[in-house]
Amino acid sequence: MIRVRFFTTLRFLVKREDIFLDRKNIRVRDLLDDVQHEVPVQFLHKVLDESGGMKRGTLILVNGRHVHHLEGLNTIVEDGDVVSLFPPGGGG
Amino acid sequence: MGGVRMKITDARVLRVNLSKGTFIEEAIDEDMYRMYLGGRGMAGKLLADEIDPAIDALSPENKLIFANGLLTGTSAPTGGRYMVITKSPLTGTIASSNSGGSFGADLRRAGYLMIVLEGQSKKPVYLSIKDDAVELKDASHLWGLGTADTTDRVLQEFGDQRGKVACIGPAGEKLSKIACIINDKHRAAGRSGVGAVMGSKNLKAVVVRGTNNVEYKAKDVFTGTVKKKNAMLKENAVTGEGLPALGTKVLDSIINQSGLYPTRNFQFATFADTEEVSGEALVAKGYLKSNKACFGCPIACGRYTVLPNGHEGEGPEYETGWAFGADCGVNDLIAVSEANFICNDLGLDTISTGTTIAAAMEMYEKGYIKKEELGNGPEMKFGSSEAIVYYTRMTGLREGFGDRLAEGSFRLGEHYGHPELSMSVKKQELPAYDPRGVQGHGLSYATSNRGGCHVRGYMISPEILGSPEKLDPQELAGKPQWVKTFQDLTAVIDSAGVCLFSSFALGLQDYTDLINDAAGFNLSPDEVLMIGERVWNMERDFNLKAGITPDQDRLPERFMEPIPDGPQKGAVSHMKELLPEYYSLRGWSKDGTIPKDKMKQLGLENAKVKLMRKSG
Fold it and tell me: Is the residue at A91 inside a domain?
């Protein structure tokens, strides 16, 4: 299972702390789409811009490492990984 | 006199001789504003001109300066900051402690850029300012009171509830090296023991009410500029959403998730119970009642908190929540908040108090501090809610073991033969980011002019938060230049009297616009940034003369050992490797001293702050 955690203002918006998805070997970008499908509240627009890229200030961590310094939204997430989502401003 | 319009650069210096009980007013040469802006810069230079940097900070020869920035008390967004400038009894360096609230704005409206307090009163006094009516009043009946009671009593005597009070509690009275000055009951000029300097002068409080208005060179232009900058603050996600919603405790989760959240006196870099004490928890547990704003601030990052037992007040801030939380291994948000309230009332720096207790916890765990020494106090164990509340109170009152804690973690460690367990730089305790996890920020810690400090060059912003752009925290290339730029720009912001948080949305050009449009100057952004560089070098020069040698630009030895846990496991500090390039970029010699040419180039050689005596 992949654990996706919501923090700060995103947590207040989505009204949950985390969600578990049964996936493996999936790009962050696709994982986010899958999470949005599972969650009734629209939240993707808070972290992604119109072109589908990360908004300036959005922070996404895979096992504590910022995807900025990995492969961005193409970073591969594996079974057992933890993905942490921070919206702009919600990361500080 | 009151209710008049005062040209922005006509604000004066009020010089108070506490030994004689006399006052002098001085006007400031307008060029001084162009060179230093005000606040941290101008008051720092004045201090450097007028005292021998090597004196004892608690002697009557030290001076205590309350200093507004150029824009404090104007309609500039976040224009409510003032600073307390003095020589620090904790570090021996220059101290420049920043605070918000409303005190600075009223001081400006009373007509003053600065109050310079000299000498020592024979008996406890407080300073009362109603526009230009100034007097020293007896404070013997206030001595021993907490800051909340002091504020209430002083305002009652002052006869105007719109007055603003800055005061010390028992901690400052008893000369604790980690004592702060509290203004508006809940805001703090926190660091470096400035409260002890105030206590050493037998000055209990300053109360001020100002009714004049600031006159701008071109009001309509300035009003338009202010409007634009306010809009930028509203639109920015940090200043418009994150900080209003969670305050500075918006940071707990990201810092912990990124693996640099110092835990148990910096032994670890992640805290398993962060969810219990985070900014999100403060909301979810229902303790957060509302946010609060300082004078002229559209952000409102302050927290008003009410606990289930009815205790209430402002905070805890991120640093406070961390110092009493993860750093002490405590996962009890109520205890953390209580410790915060006690610090505010007794007048203690929350960062230094929490981290000094954390250092004591490690010393106790290792058997250096014995149970018998704690008297009736609880065991000094990591994770103890009881210990953080009890020992904070004891520290504020200098009672029992608290008397030793009141000296700060370095002197505590020295006493037990283990100063290496004090997580401090130049004897000031480090704040809430493990430098092994952020290389640029580590360099900032080591080179800050006031010792362990995060706000003098907040490299967390680019290295973790991605503002203005995301840097790799473990990358070394380019970091010394970033640190220098952040340090210089921050010095500009502090000297201008606006809030550091405005820099999440505003840049150098924006500050240049505000300064020029308010004062009618014609400075270029480069000239404005050079003001920051000038201030930085002035402070370092003071420190070198105070005997703070360049070899103290270093971090505790713990940070040469790898982080043992979390996503940054294995990381060590490379700050030493960055230092030579940093010195070179600063134009300093290889040994970290400042060449005469550099001082000349910045206009700091043989150039005192020009003041003209007006009365007294």
Answer: no
